[in-house]
Amino acid sequence: MSLNVHPQLLRALRTVIDTGSLTAASERLGFTQSALSKQISALEAAAGTPLVRRGPRGVEPTEAGTRLAARAATILDQLDAAARELDDLSAPLGGRLTLGGFPATAMSLVPRTIARVRAEHPSIEIGFLESSTAVQIRRLRAGRLDLAVIATGEGLPGYDLTGIEVDRLPAGPLLVVVGRRHRLARAERVPVGELAGEDWIAGRGARSEPQFGAWPTLRDPRVVTELGDWSARLGFVAAGLGITTVPSLGVGVLPGDVVCIEVDDPSWTGRALGLARVGALTAPAAAVRAALITEARTLAAR
Fold it and tell me: Does domain 7-79 have CATH number 1.10.10.10?
């Protein structure tokens, strides 16, 4: 069988499976739900078999859909890498790179880093792709990313980092965020037992993507709301509807109506922040690495 289809059909399948919803996938890709449904149907017709099934809990992939989506991820990454290489032909040699980071890095660390590099090295052009650590690792191997800020440690998957160099970045502690009228708002530090029984606001993302939310070592925490956007989560916390966790690298841009608290928890071993790459550092990548270390150290010390 020859599967000769437009890459957009593969992107549609991958996004539907990642989000588990035609509605969410259509919003992410910028198509109407009807148009996206037609793309999935066209791909199923070309494949000669159903690729997804709709159920009460959203859209689930069939076995064929799971296998094709895995191949599609590699194909799409290679196409994106090829497009970047063609773009680089018209750009100054070594003047452009793409940095990846998980969503929390976009709160402060990445924008501060880009601003620093732009001020110190105006000829370096930095693109940014926000995604989970797992997706970043795949994109590094596909050549779609030059550098990636990743997280490893307790509560996260055991990522395969074979062939990937990882430099440790300074990282402060995981913090709890509460509204200013919360009972713990005046405490700078609390024992983990004080968090039992609290309502938690958690992150929401694609299947299997780790999210910030309840304190990691709590047993059976009560998660009352899941929200994909950081500003929405913090808005719920500010209104007193629950509390959440945030990494130290996001503290600098928190709204004034929430408060950060450190937690004493001997059972929590913490997580590490790293800068990942494949191969040797280019001169622009070395400049970005130096800026990331400087900004990460500043944020960790707050």
Answer: yes
Alpha helices of 221-277 — where are they, by DSSP H? 230-238
Of 42, 49, 34, whose CA–CA distance to 8 is shortest?
42
| CA–CA–CA angle 247, 109, 114 (5° rounding) | 170
Q: What radius of gyration, in Å, describes the C-alpha atoms of the chain?
A: 21
Does the structure show a pLDDT above 80 at 302? no
Specify the CATH number for 174-264; select among 3.40.50.150, 2.30.30.40, 3.30.300.70, 3.40.190.10.
3.40.190.10
Residues in a beta bridge with 235: none
In angstroms, the first-to-last Cα distance of the chain is: 59
User: Could you read off the pLDDT of 6-38 as tens digits, one per residue?
Assistant: 999 999 999 999 888 888 888 988 999 899 999
**Distance in angstroms (rounded) separating the CA atoms of residues 256 and 201:** 18
Confidence at residue 94, expressed as pLDDT on a 0 to 100 scale: 52
* 256, burial (CB in 10 Å: exposed 0-12, middle 13-18, buried 19+): exposed
At residue 267's C-alpha, the angle toward residues 187 and 186, to 5°, is 5
Distance CA 289, CA 275 (A): 8
How many helices (DSSP H) and strands (DSSP E) are in the chain?
8, 13
What's the one-letter identity of residue 143?
G
- In whole angstroms, give the CA distance from residue 237 to residue 239: 5
